[in-house]
Predict the structure.
Amino acid sequence: MSEFLEGKTLLIDKPYEWTSFDVVNKMRWHLKQKLGVKKIKVGHAGTLDPLATGLLIICTGKNTKLIESFMGGEKTYTGTFLLGKTTPCYDLEKDFDATFPTDHITDEMMGAARESFLGEHQQVPPIFSAKQVDGKRAYDLARAGKEVELKPNIVHISSFTIDASRFPEVDFEIVCSKGTYIRSIANDFGKKLNSGATLIALRRTKSGDFDVKDAVDVEEWIVKLDD
């Protein structure tokens, strides 16, 4: 158990509808109880949205100093876009607010749209994001009904594959740089098809050299901690 105080890196498979901070807080509480201490450093290397699942790198003790280096690696995501509908936050956290035609969309159009994302380009983050605007989180301003203008970031997409066999749902795998918003890719993908799109499923499978295959869920980790 002393390893956790000294420094340990854990791979967690984040549950659906949990925030990344929910995972950190749950693990910190159990570690404090098990170790009998009042404080222990626990942090995560890269936020996952509440509606996303998958790999969350958790660091304790002195390993929290490694968080920045872990965050810099490429990320791999799998998931699903729904064509023809949009939401204000680009995923299912809010209700659909618009419907668009999809009958005109061909495999060739989707292929061209997919290829246009490859390489380096500018991406505007969703207004419902944790980006800082004048010292405040963008999603706090958006939820308060205030107008939010976010500056684009430079991101790099090294791989983007799609499977439209369940059209209008489109399954994907994306390998991308730190700071890439998959929700924004979904929204932009719909626009490139003269339609709309919403991210309806998202899972992070890799982050740098770490793989979700080696991760455990939170409850399993707690059981192991108590053994």
In short: The first strand starts at residue 7 and ends at 14. Residues 75-207 form a domain with the Pseudouridine synthase fold (CATH 3.30.2350.10). The longest helix spans residues 20-35.
